[in-house]
Hints:
- By secondary structure, the protein is α+β, with helices and mostly antiparallel strands.
- The chain contains four helices and four strands; from the N terminus they run H-H-H-H-E-E-E-E.
- The termini are far apart.
Amino acid sequence: MSTTLxxxxxxxxxPNIVLAVVTAAIVALALTAAIFSLRQPASAGDPSTPxxxxxxxxxxxxxxxxxAAVALLDPTLQCTDRHFLTSYVPENTALTLLETADxxxxxxxxxxxxxxxxxxxxxxxxxxxxxxxxxxxxWRITGAPWPVYDCGVRP
Length: 155
């Protein structure tokens, strides 16, 4: 027994197919743009500014250069490389500067952290506020910095 679609049924299916194709094209373009932007070389910011320190810190974390990341943290946090080894940072992580309040000490830098996952995992984004203080002539990240929120808690 074969089934054939009536003209009305066929017309009902066409908009759904068009919508599915348009949605797939938009998702593909968004993923392509995200991947392209993540592959752009990240320049290190000016290390004499709070936003430059945050940018350098994020770059060190993503590249798994934990010694460089620890060097940008407040020494009283007692962070070590081991704290970073137990944290999870996806390979395709990007930071976008949202706001900086660096006229005073302490300073704060607000960033959007995006993780572009694969087709199944999807993408995530959240905001982080980095607090910084001056130590001698350099800015250092203090508080509970992403992605090691528990420095000083364990060795």
